[in-house]
Amino acid sequence: MAYDDVIIVGGGIVGLATAMELLGQQPGLALAVLEKEPQVAAHQTAHNSGVIHSGLYYRPGSLKAQTCVAGATLLIEFCRQHAIPFEMCGKLVVATQASELPRLQTLYERGIANGVAGLRRIGPEEIRELEPHARGIAALHVPSAGLVDYGQVAEAMASVIRQRGGVIQCSTRVTGIARRGSEWVLQTTQGECRAPYVITCGGLQSDRLARSADGSSDVQIVPFRGEYYDVRPQRRYLVKHMIYPVPDPAMPFLGVHFTRSIHGGVHAGPNAVLAWKREGYRKTDVSLPDLASMLGFPGFWRMSRTQWRTGLHEAYRSWSRRAFVRALQRLVPEIQERDVTPNGSGVRAQAVDQQGRLLDDFDIATAINAVHVRNVPSPAATASIRIGQHITQMVASAFGLDAGVRLDAARTGRLQ
Asked: What would the pLDDT profile of 299-321 be if each residue is shown by its tens digit?
């Protein structure tokens, strides 16, 4: 049996950032991170596009807006401190038809409200100056967007956690969480763990962890697979920065776009196709338990009734390279099917509520001596350190760790 002050379930970038911040503010805290995979950051963190987001898209006042701009600054500082390569290459959000101009203006106003540095609205001539092969009638130039390898960031965070006395226990799947007296008891594949306080940051399994702990079932994760293509090396000159379309405001996805890689490549994508397995990175991956869970959730069917056309279009684009490339050609007309090759994919943990609405903000809930991170999709990697600080503040308030009174009481109780 293992006993700690705080147990964090989930070793993705948000769980790691939270552990790092807690240990930084509470030296001597007995803290353990439990990760079911053999290494940290195995899922969303390791399968994203590597973009440092600017904070442009998010509703002012939302938790995404509050954490993204500040989080990007903290992330860049962390990268400098730990010699992690990053590049602030900037991006364009390009309107290709007149109907997109009002949405582009809304994005501009959001970006200004959120404090996005250097944001400008530009016309066709300046689009061509910045991206000679892109075409559009107007665009937003976002110089504060950048690139990094989040796997490297996560490894550096893990190193800091260990230096501060925290424990990261991999290959440890949590199979049950129960309240017993004044403590939480976690059943794992490596034995039983106990702590007075628990934080769940399970990403694609986040709803199941929260439900196991307190029975909450008002939201459920619906997985969306995002598939990428690589632009062939001889055609990478077509993209100098990053190029995005104007997104659909009804969906929490950014549309098929071009991003550069910190390692030198150029990626195209992702789409957003419904996945039949929460951790299924191939088109053919199916999990019957995951599928049954999704089909048994009323919110899934309500979402499907309103989004079925979009879903069919995304599925068609998933199987048709020609359709995928047509979406890319709206931004860069010269790109051809022969210019791209299939690359990897990621799965987005998107929370959906009982009414079928896709949650467009982070969802972090408190319970008795517990915090459940239930929805932290993009820009969670960018904002991870600021999210970690936010959760630490929630913990200090909810658990009383700032004064140490309740923590000391828990320690005293367990020693009796």
From this structure: 999 999 998 888 888 888 888 99
Query: What gap in Å lies between CA 61 and CA 119, rounded to an integer?
Result: 19
Residue 2's pLDDT is what? 66
Q: What is the dihedral of CA 331, 332, 337, 342, to 10 degrees?
A: -70
DSSP 348-361: EEEEEETTSPBP-S
Decide if pLDDT at 410 tops 90: no
Closest by Cα among 112, 199, 233 to 374: 199
Three-point CA angle 87, 52, 73, nearest 5°: 90
Cα 408 from Cα 239, distance rounded (Å) = 56
Determine whether 313 is exposed, middle or buried from the number of CB atoms within 10 Å of its CB (0-12, 13-18, 19+).
middle
**What pTM did the predictor assign?**
0.93
For residues 11, 15, 21 and 22, what is the CA-based torsion angle, rounded to 10 degrees? -90
Q: Determine what percent of the chain is predicted with pLDDT higher than 90.
A: 83
Task: For residue 171, give the DSSP letter.
Answer: S
Q: What percent of the chain has pLDDT over 70?
A: 95
Q: Does the structure show a pLDDT above 50 at 174?
A: yes
Task: Give the bridge partners for 187, in sequence order.
Answer: 176, 192
- Given a contact cutoff of 8 angstroms between Cβ atoms, the answer to whether 157 and 15 are in contact is no
Cα–chain-centroid distance for residue 104? Answer: 23
Q: Give residue-wise pLDDT tens across range 141-170.
A: 999 999 999 999 999 999 999 999 999 999
Q: What is the DSSP string of 37-78?
A: SSSSS-STTTTS--EE--S-SSPTTSHHHHHHHHHHHHHHHH
**10: closest CA among 394, 374, 345, 360?**
374
Contact criterion met (CB below 8 Å) for 168 and 162: yes
